[in-house]
Design brief:
By secondary structure, the protein is an alpha/beta fold. It has helices at about 25-40, 60-70, 85-95, 110-120, and strands at about 1-5, 10-20, 45-55, 75-85, 100-105.
Length: about 120
């Protein structure tokens, strides 16, 4: 399940995931939130938090994530991934080199540091 993090500046989209994240989560929460943010911002920063109860993505969510990233490839200003899941962190580091923006990865204990970095 994805939830929007509301205490961030207008040019930052924050989402937090717990449990299993599905394609429906992307279609009903994340994709509309991104579209709304891009109405007011040419460049967007994203804080993506995978909480301690995160259990994974279904195939549909992974495909939606890839499509979303490619569609807005040059529109990202910064991305902060907050996660204790080593496989996802490693995957993000590997594919983060394809992004035209800076990507930083933080552990869940570093959520405050991630929020500070994404908003400065």
């Amino acid at each position: 399940m994805l939830k929007i993090i509301n205490d961030l500046p207008d040019n930052v989209l924050g989402v937090s995931g717990e449990g299993k994240i599905t394609g429906k989560d992307y279609e009903t929460v994340l994709i509309p939130a991104i579209a709304e943010k891009f109405k007011a911002n040419k460049k967007l920063r994203m804080l993506y938090h995978l909480g301690i109860n995160f259990t994974g993505f279904d195939l549909s969510a992974m495909l939606d994530d890839a499509k979303m990233g490619m569609k807005h490839l040059s529109a990202w200003d910064r991305i902060a991934l907050v996660s204790d899941h080593e496989m996802i962190n490693t995957f993000a580091k590997f594919f983060g080199h394809m992004l035209s923006c800076e990507l930083r990865i933080f552990k869940n204990a570093g959520m405050a540091e991630a929020k500070k970095w994404i908003t400065e």
